[in-house]
Structure formats: C-alpha cells, structure tokens
Q: What sequence folds into this?
C-alpha cells in the first residue's frame, strides 16, 4: 500500500496532567509505519492523543482506530438492533458507536434512546468486558464552544471548610 507523504508529524503535550496534541498528520489517508510507531509511543506516554482538524468518514475513522489496535464491536450496537432503534443511531461499521443528543427530527433532545444530553447511560469503552479494549477513539463532529464533557457527575458544588 502506498503511503501518501504526510506533513511533519508533531506531538506537543497539552500542559495538563495528560494528553498531547498531534498535528501534521491526516488520518483520512494511510499513515506511514514510522508515524504509526511514533503515535503508539506518544499514546503510551501521554495516555490521550488529540488530533485537531480531522475530517473523517466512518471508514477512515475505523482505519485510524486500527493504528492503535483491533477495534471491537460495541455492546450498544446489539442493544440498538434488539430494541429497534432508528437507523440514524446505528453506524455503518459495528465497531463504531454513534453518540449524540439529536432526535429524529434533527433537534437537541434531553433523552434519546438510552443516550442523554446531560449524562450518557452507556459505555463505549466496553470496560465491563473480561478483556476490554486498550482504549476508545472518539471523533467529535459537532462540538460546543464551552463544556461538552463526555460524562458529567452533576455533583453539588463543594462547600468551603468551616474554619
């Protein structure tokens, strides 16, 4: 397979407790083996890699995920098929979980067939399996300017300790 010449791969730590921002790579095209090796090292070191500015089809997303290991079929696919959930919730590939808060009418909804806007009632990481995957690869298509947490615990604010 021919590998399209990528831009210069750069990996910059986020400055936070974990994570790095990866630029100079187009995940929509085949990735050279030396860049794949660098990505694996960066993932092990930073635990979270952020690839800004990507524009991927589901097939390209799946190919990018395969750079890090063999994807598995998510448990929510069987749930959606069993419950007759509408087609727009089921991805083209069984290894991809569609997560959103848009209803069938195209508007934001508070509850959406086991997916919620405030809190997600599923586990795309399949961490409950006896042999769970090493990680998850999320691809945000529409991201809010503020917030957008993938799971919020809605705890009351901490009270200052009495002195």
A:
């Amino acid at each position: 397979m021919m590998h399209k010449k990528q831009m210069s791969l750069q990996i910059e730590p986020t400055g936070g407790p974990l994570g790095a921002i990866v630029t100079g790579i187009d995940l929509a095209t085949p990735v050279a083996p030396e860049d794949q090796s660098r990505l694996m090292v960066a993932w092990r070191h930073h635990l979270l890699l952020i690839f800004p500015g990507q524009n991927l089809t589901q097939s390209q997303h799946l190919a990018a995920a395969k750079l890090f290991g063999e994807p598995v079929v998510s448990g929510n696919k069987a749930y959606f098929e069993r419950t007759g959930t509408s087609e727009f919730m089921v991805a083209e590939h069984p290894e991809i979980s569609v997560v959103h808060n848009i209803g069938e009418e195209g508007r934001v909804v508070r509850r959406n067939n086991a997916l919620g806007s405030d809190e997600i009632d599923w586990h795309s990481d399949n961490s409950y399996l006896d042999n769970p995957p090493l990680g998850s690869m999320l691809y945000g298509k529409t991201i809010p300017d503020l917030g957008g947490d993938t799971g919020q615990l809605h705890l009351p604010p901490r009270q200052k300790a009495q002195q």
User: Anything to note?
Assistant: Residues 116-122, 152-163 have pLDDT under 50 and may be disordered.
